[in-house]
Description:
Shape: globular
CATH architecture of the largest domain: Orthogonal Bundle
Domain Disease resistance protein winged helix: 234-304
InterPro entries: Apaf_helical, LRR_dom_sf, LRR_R13L1-DRL21, NB-ARC, P-loop_NTPase, WH-like_DNA-bd_sf, WHD_DRP
CATH topology of the largest domain: Arc Repressor Mutant, subunit A
Number of strands: 40
Region (Disordered): 416-438
Keywords: ATP-binding, Leucine-rich repeat, Nucleotide-binding, Plant defense, Repeat
Number of domains: 6
Structural class: alpha/beta
Helix content: 10-25%
Family: Belongs to the disease resistance NB-LRR family.
Strand order of the largest sheet: 28-29-30-33-34-35-36-37-38-39-40
Amino acid sequence: MGGLGKTTLAKAIYKNEQIVGHFDQTMWVCVAEKVDRIEVVFKMILKSLTDEEIEGDRREEIVKKIQHELKQKRYFLVLDDLWNDQEVLLNDFFSTLAGLNAKKGSWCLVTTRLQEVAIILSRHPQINFTRHELGRLCNDDCWSIMKKWANVAEEVPKELEDIREQVLRRCDGLPLAAKLIGGLLSKKRKEDWLSILEESLLNGDQGGIEQILKVSFDHLSPAPIKKCFAYCSIFYQDTELEQDLLVEHWMAEGFLQPDSQNERMMEKIGFEYLRILLQTSLLEEVKEERRTWYKMHDLVHDFAKLILNRNSSNQDRYLAVYSSESMVETINAKTSASLRTLFLEGGIADDMLSKFKYLHVLKLFGADAKELPTSIGKLIHLHLLDISGSRIRTLPESLCKLYSLQTLRIGMLVDGRDDDDDDDTGREIQMPSDTGREIQMPSGIGRWTCLQTLEFFNIGRQEEGRGIQELGTLQDLKGSLEIRNLELVNGKDDAELAKLSKKPNLYRLVFEWGNRNRESDKCDEDALEGLQPHPNLKELQILKFMGDQFPQWFMNLALTSLVELRVADCTRCRKLPALGQLPFLERLYLTGLENTTCIGLSFYSTSTISRQTFFPVLKILSLKSMKNLEEWKDAHEMRSTAGEVHVMDVFPVLEMLYISDCPRLTTIPTPSRFPSLDVLQITRNCHVLLAEKVLSNITTLSSLELWDRESSLSIEGCDSLPTDMLERLCLFPALQRVELRMADNITTLRGTSCTACLKRLVVSSCKNLRELPEDLYQFQALEDLEIWGCPRIDSFGYPNPKNSFGQKSLPKSLERFTVGGCDALTRLPVEMFESCTSLRELDLSNCRSLVSFPLDFRRTPSLESFSLRACPNLVAEMPSGFGYLTSLREVKIGPFSDDSAIGFDWAGLASSSTLRRVSLFGMRDTKSLPHQLQCLTTITSLSLRNFGAINALPDWLGNLARLEIDDCPLLTERCTPQSGSEWPKISNIPKRVIH
């Protein structure tokens, strides 16, 4: 059933901070329709990962690309609104998904209206399946939702209370219905509510959400909003619709008429219509970090499509073709003269495009759309051209005949990072993409005097009509504009011809020079001086500028509205501009300023006032790849003209500080200058003294990262990391995650005391580490503990018996515990698991000296996954009590010698009613599989690896749906289809993987 809130719940899980922090990669894919080829879904997944359109449907190529993106990553995939109930197709999809070699612990969440889908997934042998069926809301919850959207206070008007039961009966427990009714009432006077509900809603012949949607639509006012609403259905379901994009489409179609009385711009009218659609719940607002977009619920989308197509004239006016195979047939069947909007996936022939001479909107997208026909120049009524989702890289000269063009979208921004950018600062900014960088602009675009949206302008030769002066006549430009190839601008006078200071509706500008040799640095400085923006500008990027210093308009505080500034790859710049007094600057990114050796006092201000606040609202500061930066001066060194020391606040609200690849930087402001700092990253080749100084006096952190992600997550030069730095971690009461990797000089973590908020502790590849913190049992919020590749560890906690973990229990909150590559470890006392009632995953591997691990699983009743691998000397005192684990789903054990197999608790394992997957790892000289294997009657998946001498399977393999045999040469030969002696035992198993 639709409208229950399945997608809403899935989205809440998808955005949950714990989910985001736990998984390396998250993907959201809205399937929304029944597909007959699984390649379609894999293409959706690839697009979610890379935003890449791939030509054709070659499954191997698509899956290979996905596998590359997910290599060694723990992923969380949401398949929303899945409609396929074909078992063969679903089994094929999830088997392929399981074979991607992603990191252990990956998850897939599926939402569907079909019971059959859930039944099929529950039978799949490779899926740890859990089903959650949403029910209807109770009346009180529905009433609460309706009141919220109707903007009703706790005291409900009597008129509404009198018909409460009737309204709730119409809601039928569906949150979407309650939301729509509330949205409908929110636009009406309270005295009209009763009549609306009685006459239109309660007496309607049609029931359910469809009737509620019809009433909501009928009450939309003014009338053009109805056209705007219906038009939204031309976009594919679950499309993320940006505010500007929606309004641009409505403008292009003529739905927005200027208000002659108060001279409101069409754009402002569009924003008002959008607000009404949001208020009535016919559109939904989605916010994520700094991005906001809009979407339709799938039921609302279906209704809008019915409205759009309910008369033949609309069917001829608006056409979206999402399948290139049906393109020609569909288009030829339409009356070309009446078509106003065309969305087309794939290319279009020159002669065909010319038929649609009355088009207002043309959107070409898909990997097969590679060329824009020259006949585009005949579409003289075209207001909006969008090729942003295509591979078109050449703009024909005939494009300049489109004198009515208001919007040109080619695709300038990607939500991505530099190739070498793998830190969290990349999530905070939008980098200019390479899309369109090679495109030559048509000659004379200055004649597009109606143009409002132009994402980028690649400067060309002035004598060919491609110079920067073409921008001067485009007075109505708004939004974001990137200007490239600025090395072709001949000084300040030439740059001023763009008239950027007279374009108040541009909120974002990017200035970029090319990599060509400059005649002089002065030329760049003069050009930038002439590019002074309007004071309304909110975001500015300056890229590859080769001047020594920045322009005067920076110093004169001309950018009083600036919120974000990014300066990157300006390798000759010596001196930073004075930015400390910009009143609204929240985000500052400085990258690749290789000639800057000092961030001096002028960085804060050139003023001499004695009482000031510098960077009053700055929240994010990033210093990256400043190879020669040695000193960052403290603002408190400034003195007034009278010689007094300034009284000032500096960085009062700074929350995030990123310092990366600044190998010479050792002097920075006193850490107490960052009173609100929450996240600190010092990564990639930074001097260890920098970390030591920053950590000396900061107590506000919730996230601390000290490593080089390109060098296995470590600080370069970590061998000299002062050990007392670790003892300071207790100074961070909000710290939630600590990861220490490749710190070879560290021998002990005793004395390290973290906070009650710590959730994840990872100690990895510290080859000389012998002792871990002595009071881990006091880390009451710890959920994930991982110790890996520490071959000299011989104690865990306190007291400290040699070659063992200590006697104190791990914290009750612990959910995942991993120990691997600790060759000095000989025993794990059972007492350390005394309080581990929340433990879900336990993984012990490659501890070659371990001889004792007598864990009684009654101490860990929540265990779902248990792995014990590559501990060859563990023969006696092995774990037992599998039968007490009521949630156990997966076990991985081995390699086995014949002796160790005897001591294993096979009987307990056989009594587990929930066990589904077993993986056994053997030894080359193991001659037989444990005979108890045939007692595991509940398992549906069995994996056998590295049993070199085994040549026979058990006579009975239970109810296996999947069998994998890997690196078992004798057994592989005997499992040859039809002819192998073991073939009859496995021929009925649906899925067999034999390597």
